[in-house]
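Hi C.,

You asked whether I'd gotten around to modeling the 278-residue construct. I have! Everything is below, sequence then structure, no commentary in between.
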Amino acid sequence: MNVAEPYSASTEGLTASNADAGRSAAACYIVLMKVPQLVAHRGYTLHYPENTLIGIEAAIRAGARYVEVDVQLSADQEPMLFHDRNLRRICGADGAIHDYPIEQLKRFKAMEFARFGYKYAAERIPTLAGFAELLARYPEVTAFVELKRVSLERLGISTVLARVQRDLKAVRERCVPISFDLKALAAARKQWPAIGVVFDRWRERRQSPVRELRPEYLFCDLEGLPWWGPLRFGGAHVVIYEVAEPAVALTLADRGVDFIETFAVGEMRAAFELSNPP
């Protein structure tokens, strides 16, 4: 989800203590409430730089069976894993993904210096093709691949879809394109077995184009939800982002939510298991 878009969940200031909140409440209710599936939001972002292969693989090893990544195209139209509209927060560099060809982008350090210092100085901006190779090693994992609007606007829907489909060909059946852009999803619907719509506000689901798309997944910002009532949409699986507290996740599941997208996938999973031992 793009920081330039209305969604503003940032990893800046994120700490491990965030994921601990609500565990005691989760212990009280987990037996009685539905436990949602977990989606690793840009990888294991609580402990690793976002959208990096090391962070994504760490999330999978922590038990994630669903991961979410963001895709933008380089100046030479190569898909890269990157969230923001500029390189400053993640790489400490000027410009944007679309300002540089792939070979230059590979030299930028994707280390999130403000959170991790030089700990992950060896990490580089991954390519989508590299992500596909990683995903191929974990056949039990499904990926939600967000098509960022900045690339769709600059390069066009057909170009973005063609490049993404090319790089994900070997794992296509386990990848779901998602986006805020409904026109892009209408085009993707013709090429992919499943798609996902992303919203900032729950009320946006009422748009006619959304009903016509009949998406398999509907993503919505936690901050854009109504305070009460069921959270369901036809036959779509409902996914809520960004959720840090297990108690909140369980309450959402009780309202009909199927998936919780979180930066703290390991801590969230551990909280559920701790309260519901085998």
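If it helps when you're writing up: The radius of gyration is 18 Å.

Thanks,
B.
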